[in-house]
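Batch job 17 of 40 flagged for manual review because the log was empty.
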Amino acid sequence: MVLLSISTELIQLSWTIQRGLGMKVSAKQLKGVPETLLYTLYMRLREARNPSGRIKDKRYQALIDRIEYDFSEMEKIPDENVRGVAFRSNTIDEITRGFVERNPGGIVVSLGSGLDFRHERVDNGSMQWYDIELPEVIELRKQLFAETDRLHFIATSVLDFSWISRIPVRKQVLFVAEGLFVYLDPDQVKRVFIGISKSFPDSEMVLDVSNPLYLQIIKIGSPNQFLSKMYALWKWGMTDWRELEAWVPGIQVIKEIRMISELEESDIRELAASSSSMITDIDQQVIGTWIEESEKFIRVGHVKFCSKTRKSKEEDADFESLYLWR
């Protein structure tokens, strides 16, 4: 398996951590979906602490140390979750970095940024970056990160499309949606895709998705209190990228990367059982379905909102582009 990694040795910090003199900032205002950003942040920290981990960034510890929150429950979360977040984060970093290299003066819009600092990991010194998050999250971000003339914070819901008017349309745009759409219902996801396609023709997006079967089984139950609350908030999943064509005709999939490429039946049984303390006897039919669908559990896709509808078989072949994370 080829593992992507994050290297940040030469990145200049834009954090306000040096100005804060180590003072704690409270995360008590984060409830419901906003609170789940702390899960993503802590899973990245756990991967970064692992000497053989795929995330190489000591700043996660510095950031966690600034936040006043009881993270003890997150230490009990299975390592499989850590690996999933690392896969997602690294893969999206690589795609975003590739976009910046191809479009050095382009724009990246991060939808639902949480407390991520991807901007610093991929910054080329000339790109423009917009973090769109709920007001309570932006309030916390401003205590930890500093806005600049190229790094902008927009405090609003992704579903409040007033943010669109603040993004320049004259340049190439990449939208980043990591760990976002799973918390929206299908109609809300559809609205976002349609809004972007109409306002930013020929823009691109990188996003992660899970299939509905994975969401269904993972919700059955978890011994971890935080995971139980988080899984209960999950709503949207997708089996086939062609489902997006019903919303946005002509959308093209540039690349799909799957976390799981091959699993033996014993691995599927173990994975299914570990998803829920309530599963004691997995039906063979369910096992078969898991085996069949295992490659679609956790995926990252890079799509393009085309200003004209695909017509040729060559263009249709873009949907078959697959890069397994091995």
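Reviewer: the log was empty due to a logging misconfiguration, but the result itself is present. Residues 6-324 form a domain with the Rossmann fold fold (CATH 3.40.50.150). Unflagging and moving on to job 18.
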